Amino acid sequence: MHSFSDRERGLGKVISFVPTMGFLHEGHLSLMRIGKERGDTLVISIFVNPSQFGPGEDFEAYPRDLDKDLELIKHIGADAVFSPERDELYDERFQTYVQLEKLPDHLCGITRPVHFRGVATVVSKLFNIVKPHISLFGEKDFQQVAVIRQMVKDLNFDIAIISAPTIREDDGLAMSSRNTYLTSEQRHSAISLYRSLQKAQELVNRGQKEAKTIVEAATELINSYPDTDIDYISICDPETLDAVNTVNGPTLMALAVNVGKAHLIDNMILTT
Amino acid sequence: MHSFSDRERGLGKVISFVPTMGFLHEGHLSLMRIGKERGDTLVISIFVNPSQFGPGEDFEAYPRDLDKDLELIKHIGADAVFSPERDELYDERFQTYVQLEKLPDHLCGITRPVHFRGVATVVSKLFNIVKPHISLFGEKDFQQVAVIRQMVKDLNFDIAIISAPTIREDDGLAMSSRNTYLTSEQRHSAISLYRSLQKAQELVNRGQKEAKTIVEAATELINSYPDTDIDYISICDPETLDAVNTVNGPTLMALAVNVGKAHLIDNMILTT
To answer: Which domains are assigned to chain B?
Structure first.
C-alpha cells in the first residue's frame, strides 16, 4: 500500500480515501462517488477494526461480505482496495493508541468508553498507510467526524476531511451496516429515531427552544415503539458536543437507541 | 513546512529529519551529519515541547539559544529549520495524545508519568508536518528511541528510524543540554553515571551476572559522589525494558540520577 501510494503521489495524483468496515451500503457508495470527483486516485479500505469495539459489543457479529463489497466497489471503479488481516494491523506487541481528551466524553463515548480511542487509532494507522490527500466520512457518525477533524488538526495530518450527508432508506431510516440485525418488527421500530428528529425540528419551527422539552417529546415518541431502549438523546453544541439548554442557531440533536440487538444512531442539525 | 516537504518529495529527494529541543551540542550535530549522509534534504526542528514536561519539571528553565543553534546548523548545512511557536503546535483546544501502554511503565516513565505521552505526541505531529523518509535519534535517550520505534511500527508511519551512539565529553559524561544546569562541583559528580556503567561492565567481564549485585555496586559508586540522588538504576531487556535478574547476552543498563537540579540519564548495553 505504501508503494502504491508513493507511486500515485509521485505522478502528481490526488489520492482520495474512504475507510470502511465493509458490508457496504449506499452511504459508503455516496462517499466513494464524492471521492472520485474530488481526487484522481480512489482508495477504499475494508477492515472491521477490533480496537473500536468494547467487551460485549458486536465485533464478532458485525456483518461481513467481502465478495459483495468488492463487486459494489467494482461498479464505482476504485483504484485500490486495502483489506488487511487483523494481525497485520494489530500484532501481539501492539501498544500505541491515539486518544482524545474531551470529544469522546459525550454521546456514544459515554456507553462506549474505548470506541473513539479505537477509531482515532485505526484512522491514524490507515492515514499513514494510505497517505491520502483527502479522506471522506459520513455524517451519520457525527461524533466520529468531529473526533477525526480534531485529531487531524491536533496531530497535523496534511489531509482534507470531507463529510457527506447521511443516506436514508425511503422511510427515513439512516443506512447502516447494523440495520441487518433488525427483525421485520424491529425494522419498523427503527424508524422512530428519524421520526423523533423530525418531531424535534417541528417543535423548533413552532417556537419551542427548550432542549429539555424537545428531548422529552423525542423520548415519548421513541418509547411508543416496541423493542426500543434509548441510550441517549442529546441536544448539544455541534463543535464541542457540550449539552445546551436552549436551541439558538444551528444545534446538534444526536441520539442512540438499541433496537433489539442493534445499536442505532442518528442525528440532525436543528435550525431556528 | 508541508509545502517545502511536498516539493522535495515531488523532486524525488529523500528527506532526513532530526527533531531537537535546541540548545544543540555535539550529540545533535552527529545526528545531523548522519542525516546528511543518508538523505538528500536535511530538516531540523527546534521546539521545547511542553507536553513532555510534567508539573514541577524544568520546562521554563530548559536552556534555549536559537541564534547559537542556527549558527551551528549553518555550519552543518541543513535545508530547512522548523522552529514553531508553542501555540502553533498546541492551541487552546488541543486534546489529542499518542500514548503507549507498556514501554512508558519503565525507567524514566515511572517518575515522569506524562513524559513519553508528550514525546510520542510531538514526534507524531512533527512526522506529519515534516513528512520525512528517515528520522534520527540519539541513543542516550534509549527509552525514547524504543518508544518511537514502537510507535512507528504500531501507527504504520512509513519512516525509517535511525539511532546513533551517545556522544560523550572527554571524561565520559554523556552530552546533554541539561549539563548546563551543573555547577563545577556537580559537573564532577555527574561523571558518576558513566563510571557506574563502566564499573558494571567490568563486573560482568569478571563473571558477575547478578543484576542485584551490579546495581548495588553502581549505587555505592554514585552515592560516593556529593549532590547525587539516584532516580533509578535498572538492568533490563533492551526490547521490552522489563527488569532481568541476570545478565545473559546483551542487556541494557540504564540509570537516572539527579545531580543538583539536573535530571541526568545514561545507559550502556552490557555484553557477556
So the answer is: 2-164 (3.40.50.620), 177-270 (3.30.1300.10)
* Residue B155 touches partner A, C-beta closer than 8 Å: yes
**Rounded to 5 degrees, what are φ and ψ at A46?**
-125, 115
**CA nearest A5 in B: which residue?**
B158
Q: What is the pLDDT of residue B3?
A: 97
Cβ of B101 within 8 Å of Cβ of A99? The answer is: no
pLDDT in tens, A193-211: 999 999 999 999 999 999 9
Whether B115 sits among the annotated catalytic residues: the reply is no
Which tens digits make up the pLDDT trace of A227-259? 999 999 999 999 999 999 999 999 999 999 999
Which residues in chain A touch residue B99, judged by CB atoms under 8 angstroms apart? Answer: 96-99
Contacts of B12 (CB under 8 A, 6+ apart): A10
Catalytic residue chosen out of the listed positions A28, A106, A115, A263: A28
- Using a CB-CB cut-off of 8 Å, the residues of chain B touching A99 are 96-99
Q: What is the pLDDT of residues A82-117, one digit of tens each?
A: 999 999 999 999 999 999 999 999 999 999 999 999
H helix or E strand, kind and range, residue A75: helix A66-76
Contacts of B121 in chain A (CB under 8 A): 155
Full 3-state SS string of A127-187:
HHHHCCCEEEEECCCHHHHHHHHHHHHHCCCCCEEEEECCCECCCCCECCHHHHHCCHHHH
Q: What is the pLDDT of residues A12-37, one digit of tens each?
A: 999 999 999 999 999 999 999 999 99
* Contact indicator for A246, A116 with CB cutoff of 8 Å: no
Residues of A within 8 A of B98 (CB-CB) are 96-99, 155
Cβ contact A96–B120 (<8 Å): yes
**Do the strands A251-259 and A228-236 form a parallel or antiparallel pair, or are they unpaired?**
antiparallel
Q: Can you list the positions of beta strands (E) in chain A?
A: 15-20, 41-46, 80-82, 96-100, 134-138, 160-164, 228-236, 251-259, 262-270
| Predicted-assembly ipTM surpassing the 0.95 threshold | yes
Predicted local distance difference test score (pLDDT) of residue B183? 98
Nearest CA in chain B to A100: B96
Please tell me the distance from the alpha carbon of residue B100 to that of residue A96, in angstroms, as a whole number.
Answer: 4
Q: Does A61 touch chain B (CB under 8 A)?
A: no
Q: Which of B2, B25, B28, B263 is catalytic?
A: B28
Give A57's pLDDT tier (boundaries 50, 70, 90): very high
